[in-house]
Amino acid sequence: MYGIIDCDNCYVSCERVFRPDLEGVPVVVLSNNDGCVVARSNEAKAMGIKAGTPLYQLRQLFPGAKMAIFSSNYELYGELTGRVVSIIRAEAPAYFRYSIDECFVYFQGVEGIDLKAWGEALHRKVKRWVGMPVSIGLAPSKTLAKVASHYAKRYPGYHHCCLIDTEEKRIKALQQYPVEEVWGVGRRYAARLAGYGVKTAYDFAQLHGDFVRTALGNVVIYRTWAELNGQDCVPNEEYAQKKSICTSRSFASMVPDLQGLTTHVANFAARCAEKLRAQHTVAQVVGVFIHTNPFREDLGQYWSFEEEQLVTPSNATLTIVQAAQRALQRIFRPGYQYKKAGVIVMGIQGDTPIQHDLFDLQPGQYERLQRLDQAMDRINRLYGTETLVLGSQQYTPQGGEGKAGVFADAIRHDHRSPNPTTRWCDVMKLK
DNA sequence: TCTGGGGTCCTAGGACCC
DNA sequence: TCTGGGGTCCTAGGACCC
After folding, report:
1. What are the tens digits of pLDDT across the range A266-306?
2. Contact A80, A419 (CB under 8 A)
3. How far is the CA of A191 from the C1' of B13 (A)?
4. Which of A267, A251, A314 minimizes the C-alpha distance to A286?
5. What is the three-class DSSP state of A139?
6. Which DSSP letter does residue A417 get?
7. Cis peptide before A353 (omega within 30 of 0)
């Protein structure tokens, strides 16, 4: 049996942990740069606010509406969801984290657990210890567990935990479940399935397996079909190590000059290096992309990507930043208004041992950079992200003190909440 | 004026090897 | 006239997820 535990309206629930006055009030959380709605409370959903609505449209569509609006605050969300995972780790025989707000658990070879009671108890503990509401779906496959979790969220009678453990419950659950909501069935497949008269998850599960395999022509969708029929097919991903890492942002205002872009790219590259070190890996390739604002059809458009191979794979901030800046110089074209840039690191491998290049001209350099990064990571962990950065990450001051970092003012976050769990100074900001 | 930021996997086709 | 059988690697495009 599998369980999926996911945080209800995750980002909204994180914001409410330190703002209990917002219980029962419509709350939305915005994407980076305060672009569009990415999370909604149940009250906001009931008002008809759609996911993905741009902020300026939200204000046009719901003028004067009473609602709380937050910029996204991933530092806070990462911390609180990490606490949820630490409880799951203690309560489940085996688990793996699937996303920021979801965790799978499994009970292979475990006998005699009352799963329904287990799930209900987990909900209570997480709510009490972290303040986060979670829902638990339990079933013989991960896809069915996802279906169960949907019912756990919607019907209070389930006490936040729904268990599908009989054929009768499976059929009943699938018959009331639209096929496009099934995990693994996106818009494209849903449209094709509709052409065959398939409306519910049950209709889909009732198709012949050979037909799914040949007419839809893909082993992935076939696996989803088999999972709905109770077979366990989707592999567990216990030790997932990212194969590529990307840090990119849109800017509050457009950036025309190489100097401005260079600072942004330095910050994105530095974040990529940090993420590489956090998962104990190095990268062989550093890529950079820049583009103009596609919504501004009145302006000239330009998009480009360039990558650079490192002589020796690395996770050193200085090395990754310098490679990214060289790549940027090759693609930068003057005369455009740039709206977004990003850094991608690829060719990722474990950091022990590293295969050094035979003709590396600076032997010993790697170890020195490693010690530098270890010291910087430690300081930033103790005193807050981006307390200490490279000079190239510092934005040029304009009549004031220059700021640095991915979270500097160049990226809009007008409604950001404090970080009382990771920054001492923010404890004072609590209401 | 204002429109996000991450990821994964599969398949087909081309180029190449013996 | 008749022209095999077995691979690998890379890339682009398409689909999905949160």
Report:
1. 999 999 999 999 999 999 999 999 999 988 889 999 989 99
2. no
3. 27
4. A314
5. strand
6. P
7. yes
